[in-house]
Design a protein that fits this description.
Layout: H1 2-20, E1 34-35, E2 48-49, E3 61-62, E4 77-82, E5 96-102, E6 108-113, E7 119-125, E8 128-133, E9 142-147, E10 151-155, E11 160-165, E12 171-177, E13 185-186, H2 187-192, H3 200-207, H4 211-220, E14 245-246, E15 259-260, E16 272-274, E17 288-293, E18 307-313, E19 319-324, E20 330-336, E21 339-344, E22 353-358, E23 363-366, E24 371-376, E25 382-388, E26 396-397, H5 398-403, H6 411-418, H7 422-431
Antiparallel strand pairs: 1-2, 3-23, 4-5, 5-12, 6-11, 6-13, 7-10, 7-12, 8-9, 8-11, 10-16, 14-15, 17-18, 18-25, 19-24, 19-26, 20-23, 20-25, 21-22, 21-24
Helix pairs in contact: 3-4, 6-7
Function: May play a role in plant defense. Probably has no oxalate oxidase activity even if the active site is conserved.
GO molecular function: manganese ion binding
Family: Belongs to the germin family.
C-alpha cells in the first residue's frame, strides 16, 4: 500500500512539475539576461544567464520599432520581432512584442499559430480583417472582426489566426505576446514547405487534392519568418481554446480568474476592444493617464495571460509614478515623445537603478514585481503602449499604497522606515 501511495504521489508531482513549466519559466531572480557564452553563465530553461552584477540598462532596451518593415514580398507584410534574441533582458520574463506592417489592398500576415503564446494586437493605422479558428472540438468556428485604428483583438494561444489589410493604404499593428520566444508556425509553409517534405500522398488525402497539385504546392512554398501572438508565464495554462469571462456563476464553471462562458455562446466581440487611439485625461496631480485593456474590458482574455495598456503623459514631467505589477512583466513601446524610464532591483541586488531615455520606436522591459516608472522629459505630450504578461497584472502605486492605505499604517512605523519625522508622515498620509 505504501508503494502505491508513493507512486501516486510521484505521478502527481510529475504532473505538477509539467504544468508549472508549460510556458516560460517563472523568474527566480530579478532578471536573467540571455548570453551565448556558457562559460560565464548559469544554465536555465531558455538562455544562459549573465551575472546580474554585469547587467546594464542596454540589456533591457531595444530601438527601431518605429521603422516600417519591408512589405515587398509574396504575402505583402513584414513582422519586426522583439523577443529574447533581440532583447537579452527578456530571458525568463515571459513576454515579447512585434510590429506588423501590411501592404495596401490585401497585404496579410497569413494563417499561423504561436505554440507558446496568446497574442493581443492593437491597430495603429489602417483597416484590418482579422480572425482565429477554434479547434475541432469547437467545430472549427471562425471568430473574425474588422478592426480600425485604436481597436484591439485577442488571438488565443495555439489557434490558427491571421490579419489582412482591407484598405488602400499601408496598415500598421503592434502586438504583445506572453512568451520570451512564442514561436511561429505559418500553416501553408509548414505543411507544404517542410524539410524534408511531407509525403505528397499524405497531403493529397488530408487536403483532398490531386497529388500533382500537392507536388506543385511543395515546389512553390518556401519557409517564411513571419510572427505575431501572445501567452503567459504566470497566468494559468488554458485547458480549452478560450475561457470567456462572465459574472453569472450559475451558468459558468469555476476557474482561477473568472468563470467561463459556454464556448458555444462566445462571439467575436468577446475578444474585441475599441478606443485605444483615444488620448487619456492627463489633467491630474501626476500628469498621466493609463487606459487599461485587461480581462475586465475584454472577457476573452480570461486564462490567456496577457493584457495591454496605453499611457498618456503630460509635457514637462508628466509621469507614471513608481509602482509595481505583482503578477506581470511589462514591455513598453514609445510612440510619441521622450521618456525617462527605469526600474530598481531588489535588495539582494543592491537596489540598483536601471534607467534609460527612450525616444519614439524605443522599447524597454520592466521585470515582474520590480518598482519602475516613466517620466515625460519632453515639452510635448508623450504616448506609450505596453504589453503585460497577465490577464490581470495588478498595480501597486508605491506612494499611494504606503501613505494612503485604508486603514492607515501606523505613522511611527513609516517614520522609522523612511527616516522621517512623524509629523511629516502624518502630512503625507493626509495627502494620499
Amino acid at each position: 500500500m505504501k508503494s502505491v501511495n508513493f507512486l501516486l504521489a510521484f505521478v502527481l508531482l510529475a504532473l505538477a512539475s509539467s504544468l508549472a513549466s508549460a510556458y516560460d519559466p517563472s523568474p527566480l531572480q530579478d532578471f536573467c539576461v540571455g548570453i551565448n557564452d556558457i562559460k560565464t553563465g548559469i544554465f536555465v530553461n531558455g538562455k544562459f544567464c549573465k551575472d546580474p552584477k554585469l547587467a546594464t540598462p542596454d540589456d533591457f532596451f531595444f530601438k527601431g520599432l518605429n521603422i516600417p518593415g519591408n512589405t515587398n514580398n509574396l504575402v505583402g507584410s513584414n513582422v519586426t520581432i522583439v523577443n529574447v534574441d533581440q532583447f537579452p533582458g527578456l530571458n525568463t520574463l515571459g513576454i515579447s512584442m512585434v510590429r506588423i506592417d501590411y501592404a495596401p489592398n490585401g497585404g496579410e500576415n497569413p494563417p499561423h499559430i504561436h505554440p507558446r503564446a496568446s497574442e493581443i494586437l492593437f491597430v495603429q493605422e489602417g483597416t484590418l480583417y482579422v480572425g482565429f479558428v477554434t479547434s475541432n472540438q469547437n467545430n472549427n468556428t471562425l471568430f473574425s472582426k474588422i478592426l480600425y485604428p485604436g481597436e484591439v483583438f485577442v488571438f488565443p494561444i495555439g489557434l490558427i489566426h491571421f490579419q489582412v489589410n482591407l484598405g488602400k493604404t499601408d496598415a500598421v499593428a503592434f502586438a504583445a505576446l506572453g512568451s520570451q520566444d512564442p514561436g511561429v508556425i505559418t500553416i501553408a509553409n509548414a505543411v507544404f514547405g517542410s524539410n524534408p517534405p511531407i509525403n505528397p500522398d499524405v497531403l493529397a488525402r488530408a487536403f483532398q487534392l490531386d497529388v500533382r497539385v500537392v507536388k506543385d504546392l511543395q515546389k512553390n512554398f518556401v519557409l517564411l519568418a513571419l510572427a505575431s501572438s501572445l501567452a503567459s508565464a504566470f497566468d494559468p495554462s488554458p485547458l480549452q481554446d478560450f475561457c470567456v469571462a462572465i459574472n453569472d456563476i450559475k451558468t459558468g464553471i469555476f476557474v482561477n480568474g473568472k468563470f467561463c462562458k459556454d464556448p458555444k455562446l462566445a462571439t467575436p466581440d468577446d475578444f474585441f476592444f475599441k478606443g485605444l487611439n483615444i488620448p487619456g485625461n492627463i489633467n491630474n496631480p501626476v500628469g498621466s493617464n493609463v487606459t487599461t485593456v485587461n480581462v475586465d474590458q475584454i472577457p476573452g482574455l480570461n486564462t490567456l495571460g496577457v493584457s495591454l495598456v496605453r499611457i498618456d503623459y503630460a509635457p514637462n514631467g508628466g509621469q507614471n509614478p513608481p509602482h509595481t505589477h505583482p503578477r506581470a512583466t511589462e514591455i513598453l513601446f514609445v510612440q510619441e515623445g521622450t521618456l525617462y524610464v527605469g526600474f530598481v532591483t531588489s535588495n539582494q541586488n543592491n537596489n540598483t537603478l536601471f534607467s534609460k531615455i527612450l525616444y519614439p520606436g524605443d522599447v524597454f522591459v520592466f521585470p515582474i514585481g520590480l518598482i519602475h516608472f516613466q517620466v515625460n522629459i519632453g515639452k510635448t505630450d508623450a504616448v506609450a503602449f505596453a504589453g503585460l504578461g497577465s490577464q490581470n497584472p495588478g498595480v501597486i502605486t508605491i506612494a499611494n499604497t504606503v501613505f494612503g492605505s485604508n486603514p492607515p499604517i501606523n505613522p511611527d512605523v513609516l517614520a522609522r522606515a523612511f527616516q522621517l519625522d512623524v509629523k511629516v508622515v502624518k502630512d503625507l498620509q493626509k495627502k494620499f
